[in-house]
């Protein structure tokens, strides 16, 4: 597992870690049933605190992307509840699109960005 943390970023370390794992799942670097490193292993490899890794894993679990197994660590376990995922996406997109409107970003520009990003996965 290759994770790169930007210690100078304003984004919280646990969110950087979470985001990289989400992107890895979307790009099929990590697949259903794959084990993630233990909290201790990943903390040592990346050079961050174990609590930071634990927080990232907790967020991923809440989002239905991993399952935490006692003694076996974290495993990729994608949530099958598509309707719930769509509603969550709707809520997130409302804020993103409202900000875009505030910055006079056009519908065409938004669609272009969505297409560009979606094509990466």
TrEMBL record:
It holds the Pfam family GntR. InterPro entries: Tscrpt_reg_HTH_GntR, WH-like_DNA-bd_sf, WH_DNA-bd_sf. Residues 11-79 form the HTH gntR-type domain. The keyword DNA-binding applies. The keyword Calcium does not apply. Gene3D superfamilies: Winged helix-like DNA-binding domain superfamily/Winged helix DNA-binding domain (1.10.10.10). Keywords: DNA-binding, Transcription, Transcription regulation. This is GntR family transcriptional regulator.
């Amino acid at each position: 597992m290759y994770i790169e943390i930007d210690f100078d970023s304003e984004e919280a370390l646990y969110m950087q870690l979470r985001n990289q794992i989400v992107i890895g799942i979307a790009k099929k670097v990590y697949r259903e049933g794959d084990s993630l490193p233990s909290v201790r292993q990943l903390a040592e490899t990346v050079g961050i605190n174990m609590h930071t890794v634990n927080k990232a894993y907790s967020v991923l679990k809440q989002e239905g992307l991993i399952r935490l197994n006692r003694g076996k660590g974290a495993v990729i376990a994608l949530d099958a509840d598509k309707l719930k995922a769509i509603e969550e996406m709707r809520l997130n997109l409302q804020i993103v699109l409202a900000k875009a409107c505030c910055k006079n970003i056009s519908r065409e520009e938004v669609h272009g960005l969505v297409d560009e990003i979606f094509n990466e996965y």
